[in-house]
Amino acid sequence: MEYSIRNIRIEDYDAIYTLWTETEQSRRALNPVDDSREGIGRYLARNPGTCFAAVLEGRMIGVILTGHDGRRGMIHHLCVHPDFRRMGIASHLVAAAEEALRKEGIQKIFGLVFTDNVSANAFWEKEGYSLRTNLNYRNKSLNERIPVGE
């Protein structure tokens, strides 16, 4: 199977959103503001060189949204279509994102994974991402359309 990895553009939004909605875990992570076309457009404008897609014959089969604040990198979304999992695509996307962050001077990356997403947690462990148990992740919504979370 010959797929390519390339930077994503806002023109890819419909394909990205379709991919995200094809898996339960990705659907859980979406919100109507940050993951809207406008929200993703803002994200890509701030992070034009660190977000990637895996494309096979014109079809988006994987995507990673990765950005940074100048100090730490963060992986916001990683998704591979269920029909194309366990083929190394996610690892290739992570490698592309890590290399892009290195080129921008970022030395440490973090990501968020639902605690009950066993396969994703196993994947990140395999990729060398350790579990931090000494931190509490807290959030606050500044928009009533964005769910607070569990």
Could you characterize the architecture of this molecule?
The chain is α+β, with helices and mostly antiparallel strands and 150 residues long. The protein has one domain (4-126): Aminopeptidase (3-Layer(aba) Sandwich), CATH 3.40.630. It is built from five helices and five strands; from the N terminus they run βαααβββαβα. The chain has helices at residues 13-21, 24-29, 37-46, 89-103, 118-126; strands spanning 4-7, 52-56, 59-68, 73-80, 109-111. It has a five-stranded mixed β-sheet. It is globular. 24% of the residues are buried.
Summarize the topology.
Blueprint: E1 4-7, H1 13-21, H2 24-29, H3 37-46, E2 52-56, E3 59-68, E4 73-80, H4 89-103, E5 109-111, H5 118-126
Parallel strand pairs: 4-5
Antiparallel strand pairs: 1-2, 2-3, 3-4
Please supply descriptive tags for the structure shown above.
150 residues; alpha+beta; Aminopeptidase; five-stranded mixed β-sheet; 5 helices; 20% strand
